[in-house]
Amino acid sequence: MKRVVISVKSTQRDKLGHDEVVELVSMGRYYERRGIQYIIYEETEVTGLEGVRTTIKVSPKSVILIRHGKVNMKHVYEMDKIHESLYRTPFGDLDMLVKTHELSSNIVDGVGHVHLGYDISIAG
Predict the structure, then answer these.
(1) CB atoms within 10 A of CB 98
(2) Which end of the chain offers a freer environment for a tag, N or C, measured as fewer CB atoms within 10 Å?
(3) Please, what sign has the CA dihedral across residues 22, 120, 117, 65?
(4) What torsion do the CA atoms of 52, 29, 110, 117 make, to the nearest 10 degrees?
(5) Mean pLDDT of the region 94-109
(6) Are 107 and 37 in contact (CB under 8 A)?
(7) Which pLDDT score is estimated for 90?
(8) How far apart, in Å, are the Cα atoms of 74 and each of 14, 19, 30, 68?
(9) Are 101 and 80 in contact (CB under 8 A)?
(10) Sorting pLDDT into bands at 50, 70 and 90, what band is 61?
């Protein structure tokens, strides 16, 4: 397992076209097992998810984002596919649909990038 610096830039666009950008830089860990790359880091107050551990699993055709802690979720991103997920919070659960329209990754020994573009539908 290798210690790495994780930089996450997230842009959320609402139906009116307004963007909200959140950036996080955190220390994390990286390892590879059986052709799947794992990136693990702790969320901070910047994302509003302090106390949540995030794991990103990168394979050649998909990215899986898993969060454990005060919120629990698992999103699967595959090009042009829709996946259902359940987002569990202390305030209740939300049913979500995730449709991926952009997916690329290039990581070599813990250095590189993952790029995702997707739409989320929450409870319809």
Answers:
(1) 19
(2) C
(3) positive
(4) -10
(5) 94
(6) yes
(7) 87
(8) 22, 24, 19, 9
(9) yes
(10) very high
Question: What pLDDT, on a 0 to 100 scale, did the predictor assign at position 74?
Answer: 96
- 79: which DSSP letter? B
pLDDT tens-digit map of 79-93 = 999 999 999 988 899
Q: Helix, strand or coil for residue 91?
A: coil
Residues in the chain: 124
Nearest to 84 by CA among 92, 72, 73, 96: 96
- The answer to whether the beta carbons of residues 57 and 114 sit under 8 Å apart is no
| H helix runs in the chain, sequence order | none
CA angle 28, 30, 31 (to 5 degrees): 155
This prediction's pTM:
0.89
pLDDT above 70: percentage of residues in the chain: 99
Per the listing, tokens 């020994």 go with: 109
